[in-house]
Predict the 3D structure of the following.
Amino acid sequence: MPINRRQLLSSAALGASHLAAASTPSAFAAIRKEFPRANQEVYLDAAANMPLPKYVAEGMRRYMDFHMYGPAEGRGQYATESVQQARVLFAKLINAKPSEIGFVICTKAGEAAVINGLRIQEAGGNLVTNDLHYAGSVHDYIGRRKAGMDVRIVKHRDWRIDMRDMEKVIDKKTKLVSITLVSNVNGWVENAKAISALAHAHGAYVYADIIQAAGSVPVDVKALGLDFAACSNYKWLHGARGAGYLYVREELQGAVVKDLSFPGYVHFNYAPWVPQRDASADEFPYEAAKGAHRYEAGNVSYVAYAGQYEALKRILAIGMDNIYAYTKPMCDRLKKELPPLGYKLITPLDAPSSIVTVQSSNLKATQEKLRKANVQVTTTGANRVRISPALYNNMDDVTRLLSALA
């Protein structure tokens, strides 16, 4: 059975620090002004790419000013603080420790670090996933299957994943169960808590792609029992491409997910590098990276993380419960009013996500209607139309979309 709202919305409340007016219509009207594109067109496509808000662009600009003009006037302090705090704030958003968060260039890079580090094929284990996982990841797994890995792909039933089907393929040789917490296909929300319990009972671990969840709905990796998770920041986290996050549960770092790269710097312990060698140390001293830093392959887009600093401050101040509560009525209305217009709903009615996907009997005609109405959504495959309201949208946007499709 699908995860319910109580299970998904299990992240710890931010408490009294919430802005008192965060959930009021005026607060969301104010944040809408920060998204120029959302005021130029009906942009209901955050699941594809969120328009860049002014505050993120400003954070990125401040970081670039540091490189352009130097550290004076607080620029150096901001450059350091923004990158350091992006890790801390993201950890808070998903209820993790900062030491459990690594920087990666994209979601799949984080996923690959986990899969490769687990050495699944080498150990003779298997990997279980399903066809509502991200298609790019499934394609990667098919490639790994062709290279010899035991990969088991569960097929959806009427756009839902049946836990009984997952139970049939998870066994004592399963090393990893890989899912997308909120499916980009149709907003299906995995029963991550039950999947984690099932996997752990067989000695397996659970990875979740949270790119359609983090910043869209409350996420608590601890309550859901996730061992690993990853996401990019250009969707619901208000950010730019080329940067993302990897979560690795602390006790699994290094021991279970092996190091495949070894970040850090050597300090040669011999002349002429040092005046006198330290006899108690090696000539080539080595110190393993600590925390999820160890999975960072090298330099990342620090300018993107400076933007993330501003985005995450805003998201946490508003509160994820408030953001989800604001977008839910828009999604509920879409689920109710699109089917009578001739669009088949393939998003479960009870899916607690901010994605609504329908099938169109004439996709080209639907695309033309949306183009004329200046409405941006995702159309994909032979007939799918995916709509994803965010915190900058309002009911007027929904009305314009429905009117265009009528």
Q: What stands out?
A: The two ends are 33 Å apart (CA to CA). The domain at 62-285+294-315 is CATH 3.40.640.10 (Aspartate Aminotransferase; domain 2). The longest strand covers residues 174-180. DSSP finds 13 helices and 13 strands in the chain.
